[in-house]
Amino acid sequence: MSAERSSRHDVLGLLAISVALGCRASPARTVVYGAARAPGAITGSSTGASDGPPAAPALSGSLTTRYTGRWGGGDDDHDLSQVLDASYDDAAGSGLSGSVLAQFFWDIGGSDPDSAFYGLQDTYDGQLTGRLYHAYVDVHGLAATPALRIGRQEIHETPVSVYFDGLSVETSRVAGSGTRLGAYGGIPTQPYESSSSGDVLLGLYALTDAWPGGRLRTEWMHVEDESLTGEHADDLLGVRLDQTIDGEQQSTSLGSAFTALDGEERDLRLLASHYDAEHELTLDASFYELFETQRDLAVPLDPFYSTLYELFPYTQLTLSSSKAWEDVRLQGGLDVRRVSDAQDVGQFNHDFERYTLTGTLTDLLARGAALGLTGEVWDSDDSDVQTWGLDLSRAIEERWDVSLGSYYSLFKYDYYLGEERDHVRTYYTHLRYRRTESLRWSLSYEFEDNDFDDYQRLRLGLSWLF
Fold this sequence. Notes:
Radius of gyration: 24 Å
Strand content: over 45%
Distance between the termini: 37 Å
Largest sheet: 22 strands, antiparallel, barrel
Number of strands: 22
Helix content: under 10%
Shape: globular
Structural class: mainly beta
């Protein structure tokens, strides 16, 4: 299937499902690990009588139109996009709700393959393309399987996030215990993939919360994928244990996740966080270790292999903390990354240490204004950099938000072009205007200064909330 036919297929599917559902939800908001809503865990029920007249269907969401212009390296590029983010809730007790997130792109004037801004979106035969990110229906009120989702969907609770066309289902608690069983399956969906022939995704899991504040999830995932690098069939096993300890003014969360790929240990992640409401103090820590070199796998397990090739074992430790007073907030952090074998250090897998401290002052220059100052120290194999960042923002008369500032990136990646830009300083300004409760404008400008060239980006957006 050609890229053009794939794009047309997405556009037609988008139009058909939009007419049928007219719906919305952001994928990051609907399914997040550890949240009360599991994949397809739908609230509300269509059973039982209700008092008074039935509620009207709840249709909500946004429609955003955005122009983006980019200049640099003697080239320029201009694009127009429109995003539909809509949801239909089960307010009337119909037993159904749904969601659509989709985007149309118009490449104004086309793009030259030799342009610095030529990317995957420019490889289609036409200038007008569409992409259907998700479109699903949730079925409510089923006794044995109260969580049932059908359509294009994304699940983040899995050992690796999966994005597919198919079905996900979760049972009620088994025999009055604290255990629920779930399954999902379908055809994996990959951005910019022209054909899904031969691709299969299957998964089974058990979710247990039989003790206070604890949660255990065990999972098996099977992925089959046919790509340019060959045919793949991989099995991933995952175990995740989370524990939350809540007090009157404090809350502590602990988590651990382990995966094994095709019978070999793959990685381990440890998480810890603490929040003290009385003293407005937060503490966060995470540790990650990749045990085995990740080579050519099914795309859902490693979507960047075709561009970045092998990912060699490494460990990474991240620590962060924040403390707030009346008009002052301090945030600090440390990142340490070590490639396990010094001979494996490469362009996209570095040893580095990063130290950061940010201070935010509110109502300093004027009421409603906030000034943030960031200091950073980067220490890598080839360079030692001390740098700064600044953000000044202010809300004006409840309608305007203005911000300007600058930040620095030692490494800035472009995964699709397979490039890495070093020592990047970005300056920006953002303007947001709430014309009414449902109509909002935004304008932003960025200037990027890096070792290779200078780039500029201008964005103008209009959002309608309904």
